[in-house]
Structure prediction request, 387 residues.
Amino acid sequence: MISQIDQRAPARQEDSCCRAYALENAEATFCIMCGKPLLRCMAFSECGGIVDDKGLCPVCVQPRLYLNERATITAPLGGSVAVPLELANVSQVDRPLFVKRLWSRERGDWRPERLGWERLNPGDRQSATVTACEIEKPGTHAIEIMWEVATQWKAREEHFAFSSTLILTVPAASAEQNITNIHITAENQQGNVNQITVPERRSTGVVEQVPRLDMQVERQDAYERRSGLRGMEGGAMVGRNVPILLKGFAEDHLLANERPIVSSDATLRFGRMTLRGGGGNIDVQLVAQGENGAMDAAATAYFSRQHFEIFIENERLMLRVLSENGARVDGTAYGLDKLAPLADGSTIAPIVKAPELLTISVRFRYEGSNISAIELSREPAWQGGAA
Prediction:
């Protein structure tokens, strides 16, 4: 059952100088106040958000977790405890979240929980339940809860994991009390741990009800890497702040060089169209060069006005085909709107039937296990200076 949140929580990202400047200057690439690159959210046109280095937009991605109000949690000692929860999307912009998976555990491996829904519209919350097993004796019992959420924009989807923890405290029973059931109430605690204390059994038999509890949540970026939810095979991560170095292109075929992707739609777009700011929507022009060093107009016509785009998604480098003519990545042909991952050593051939006309090779520069820069090299390189 969906219920409306009484009052939406404010965005966790304050209007920083970067966000304010990006909203005022649609084509700005760096914040004039602090000098940082403006790493816009993929849905910047809707949310106006600036992502962090790990790709999270705090405007679009605002999950909350609540312990259900007026819910009663009761179970026999030695059995299981069903914990009723509500997952909420408190984003103040019209950006739904998609809850892909939910897990819980007391210790050991994560245990998947069942969800009968996925979409979580802004301002709404949906019910879910996790089960705490093996509450066999008095003492302190921790229940960890983790869930995966996704935010979508056109053909793109970013995934993140968040978690929270409940502590169940079951007091020892005296001989006179002879506690046989667990009755749980909740109280707010600071930090990421929410304390649930089991009161002594009352002679009246009154069952305590749980008040609504806004639980603290944390992003689980370490789990995202370990599970392959984000990052590349082998553990390498492509952060949104990684600069891209364009080699072998004429200077006037590039909007800019040696900087992160800072365009308003968070993409680096290739094609024969005019560059952004000059009436077109391209960051890198695809132009064929003849034997005399001049542009080969006939060969250049094989490139579409917008041929493909490159972007960083889930800390991976991705290519999306924009042309009905398709493109090749590592020898495989991809059609319109298809996505292809790019790795260290990948080769992009824009013309499927004539891959030898022009290729772009991909190289990663590493500092330890981190990718410090990405090189995109045109082959054959443009001979001479500006075209």
Observations:
- The radius of gyration is 26 Å.
